[in-house]
Amino acid sequence: xxxxxxxxxxxxxxxxxxxxxxxxxxxxxxxxxxxxxxxxxxxxxxxxxxxxxxxxxxxxxxxxxxxxxxxxxxxxxxxxxxxxxxxxxxxxxxxxxxxxxxxxxxxxxxxxxxxxxxxxxxxxxxxxxxxxxxxxxxxxxxxxxxxxxxxxxxxxxxxxxxxxxxxxxxxxxxxxxxxxxxxxxxxxxxxxxxxxxxxxxxxxxxxxxxxxxxxxxxxxxxxxxxxxxxxxxxxxxxxxxxxxxxxxx
Length: 249
Known about the structure:
This protein is 50% helix and 15% strand. It has helices at 2-58, 81-84, 87-99, 106-124, 132-142, 156-164, 175-178, 220-226, and strands at residues 64-65, 147-152, 169-174, 190-198, 202-206, 216-219, 243-248.
């Protein structure tokens, strides 16, 4: 009798263990199944998004070059402290004159730069490297532009789309990544320029960092890698966000 009870007890113990294993196995299978389903949905979504972007890009012109007037940040080639830090002002001036349909020359550009710097000293206490947000504020308060937006997580595809809509883009960059042969070596930690167009595999810019900067073309990948907003310190420039500034009439 005792032996029989032990066998029954052992049977139920084994049955319990078997049941637990089945339940655990089922839960594990379900988790893996739904995880795999989720991954497939995400992959499908990513593929769909890529297909949409490709489709949109196929509808874009093969080449665009907006007639953005040019000025270097040192119109008279005087590379003093003020002009060494005037790339933001020069970029903003070029876009402002483009939107207003006006021409630029050395005299006009120099006066505009000096006036923008004077405004910053009066209202902000000093002339310094500007983030894209600060440049946006400067455009709003000095030039009184209202339709201004910052394009976050910028890509070459987004750049081309904006250009196709007639919008030049001001981008902050890690200047030394551009490897422009006309920069004073080793080049600026931080810089700003205007993207005015594109061709098959190039981005066309107005780069105020050199007098040869009008319609200066960079490989698309170089521009993308270089785009970084000002993080506060030159050594941290590669931590800056990828953003662009767009002003519309």
